[in-house]
Amino acid sequence: MSLHPLDGKQFRARLVLLRNAKGLKQEQLSERIGRAYNYISRVETGRVKTVPFDVLAKLALALDVTIDDLLFIDGLAESADDIKFRIKTLLETSDVKKLRKFYRLLLVIVEE
User: Fold this and answer.
1) What is this structure's pTM?
2) Number of other residues whose CB lies within 10 A of the CB of residue 68
3) A Pfam family this protein belongs to (predicted)?
4) Cα dihedral 34, 18, 69, 52 sign
5) Contact of 17 with 69, CB cutoff 8 Å
6) Where are the domains of the chain?
7) What is the rounded CA–CA span in Å between residue 83 and residue 79?
8) Alpha carbon distance 50, 47 (integer Å)
9) What is the tens place of the pLDDT at every residue in 73-100?
C-alpha cells in the first residue's frame, strides 16, 4: 500500500477530528502531551508550522492512533467510521471546484 501524506490543512483537520472523537478539549490534549495549555490550539490553527516527531508520537499515544493515522491519508484502518472520517476530512479541506467534482462523481455512483 502506498501512503499519501496529508498537507498541513488536512493534518490540522484530522487532529481536530481525532481529538473530538476522544472527547478531549484542546487544553486537555496539550496537557496529556506535556505541552503548554494552548499548544494544540496553535497547531490546529496553523500557528505551529512544524510538529516535532516526539510530539507526533505523544499525540498518537494520547489519541490512541498510529503516527501513520496522523500523517497519511491512507493511514487509517478501513472500518466504516474510518472511511467516513477520511471522506469528511477530504471534503472539509477541498475548494469549491473539487467539491463540485466530488458531487458529480457521487451522483454517477449513486445512479448505478
Assistant:
1) 0.64
2) 14
3) HTH_3
4) negative
5) no
6) 8-111
7) 6
8) 9
9) 765 555 677 778 778 888 888 889 989 9
